[in-house]
Design a protein that fits this description.
Elements: H1 3-7, H2 11-21, H3 27-39, H4 41-56, H5 92-112, E1 128-129, E2 143-144, E3 161-162, E4 180-185, E5 188-193, H6 214-232, H7 242-254, H8 260-268, H9 274-283, H10 286-301, H11 311-323, H12 328-337, E6 340-341, H13 349-352, H14 360-371, H15 390-397, E7 403-411, E8 417-426, E9 433-436, E10 442-445, E11 448-449, E12 452-453, H16 462-470, H17 477-491, H18 511-523, H19 528-536, E13 570-571, H20 574-585, H21 597-605, E14 609-611, E15 619-621, H22 627-634, H23 637-642, H24 650-656, H25 661-673, H26 679-689, H27 699-710, H28 713-716, E16 717-718
Helix pairs in contact: 2-3, 3-4, 4-5, 6-18, 6-19, 7-9, 8-25, 10-11, 12-16, 17-18, 17-19, 25-27
Length: 719
Amino acid sequence: MTPRDIANLTPEFFELLEALCEDRLDQADAQRLEQFVLRDANARRAYLAYLDLHGTLHWNTAFGTDGANFEPAVSSRLALDADAVRPAAGRGQRRLIVLAVCVTVIAVFSFSAGRWFVPNNDQTPLATHDEPRTTQSQDINRVELVAVTRNHEERSPSRPVMLTDRPKSENPMPEATDDLRESKVDGNTSIVASDASLQRPVGGNMVVKGDGSVQGIVAVINEHLAAGWKVQGVEPSPLADDAEWLRRVYLDVVGHIPPVDVAEKFLADRDLRKREKLLDTLLDDPAYVRNWTVVWTNLLIGRSDSRDVNRPALQKYLRESFAKNRPWNEMVGEFISAEGSFDQNGATNFLLAHLNNQAVPATAITAKIFLGRQIGCTQCHDHPFNDWKQDAFWSFNSFFQQTKVARVDRSDDTGKMKSQASALETKHVGGPTHFETRRGLMQVTYPKFEGTSISEDADTNRRNELAKLMTSGDKPLVSESFVNRMWDHFFGCGFTRPVDDMGPHNPPSHPELLDHLAREFVASGYDCKQLIRWICLSDSYQRSSRFGKTNEQDNPETGASPLFSRVYVKGMTAEQLYDSLLLATGADKTPLATGDHDRRRHEWLQQFVHAFQTDENDESITFESSITQALLMMNSELTQQALSMDRGTFLEKLISSRDPEADKIRRLCLATLTRYPTPKELQALRRLVHEGTTSRSNPAGWQDALWAYLNSSEFVLVH
């Protein structure tokens, strides 16, 4: 969609959109807007972009009736409250601004939608196969790396996705176009649109009960996903060979590629239960603790440095918790209710990072991370999409109103102050929380979560009560959100997209499966390792990331509902790349690699992190698939260390060994890509290591070979 397409839309269309978002649309205007949306593909795209923008920005103009209960959607009927009519005010300047932002949003989305993984002929695969892969390690040599030219003309169109069923319109539908048509699914009439963002569940309605064992729960996962494949007529990808699965599970579970010796042993092992045994080994590996400490540190406080938080103390808390496999609900409860200084109680750092501006950021980030709900916009108005209202936001916020940030002096042995520490303290105050509506009216609310209120007395510790409410029941939102986030981590896509925006406006692709796993997670005692076992031992996780003839359009990046008929390719995180590069090359053995490993990695990461200094503590990381990443991998201090011949590095050991040259090349490939080279690769690399010299030992040639592997897409992707 181009700026010209936007400009061609009539001013009336944008007036109706604005009235919709401000809850002052009458029935006649609703039907008029419906006609615009159903007849014009550009209007549909603008409609979706406008509503998405409205849901994330804080408008500074009047809003409609606070009590209105409206859920906008592209549907066969826009059901509105006739009492919600309000006079329209002149907002020409604002409309122009919104128009410009919509153009920008659509342009950016169009550019980024195809960055990572485009199906069929528009994608350059990691490798192609002479024959279908098997799980036997001896077949790995059949894989051949080839360059595939892009062919846009032959690209298959994306499979349309279904809009959520709605009641039929009282007025006749406009004539269907190529972009919009009716489709009969399970006896219901739905609108089918290629650019729809609302999706139907793909698994069908089914109830599969397991026996609570690992095998039983894995069987439930397999049956649910297989049912979805059958309904959609999809044949899943073949099982991943040992090399592909080994590399994937190492990166996902412990955060780095497997050591070359481990890979060599695993590929030669003939034990039929070797994958299950390896997974148990990884879950007990210290690297498991280190990896999930990194993952949750980034989620809880971000990658940016701040004087208000003590990153090492939070990491210490997380390391100890993951090492003991503490129940997730206990950890969440401590993040919510923690008190004390940031160096003595690491759990306090979560709220300390966000407890500013009347605890508004803390309210929003708590819901986003632990409940999987994005409620930031509801501080100013009712959410345009889901069931969170402004009153619910401030009721949730009321739990944090007793909390204050204090400064604690730290003195040395002489009594002289040497530093200050941030601390969380509880103010013994009670009463309501006041907030202002979009109409300028002051209202009050009291601490309430999911319909349950607590005493507003000053003696009640509100955060302690919130921690209990958030983790009570047989399937709290905390469980559902965590399962969804973990599924996204391992598969490259969650049951919802985005993973932290769950709710009726964004239904999960497999609701029954998500519900079952969330309940089983609670029944397991919130056992994080058990959840990882269920996912990693499932049939889908053990399949290849390469699509087959019928599942090439199982690609969530195109807007389709995920079927999980394969594992979706994702880029390494900055931490995964750093640790994998060091492990593969021994770059940390060089004289330049001095100091603590975690500190050096954190300093290296800061070149990709940009903090926006907003009240919401927003930050961005420019790493995955960026020019900065490519330049860094081609020529940087870290790359130079990776290619070093210093004593103890991988290259130094490889070249100085007495192994045959072919075995050295195989080991080089195994160390970087976790597989053996194909015959063509082996032949090409033998020429490369001897290029420009007749010497049997050519260090520059070996450095070139290692550099080529490190700069391949196969190295930087998790597949």
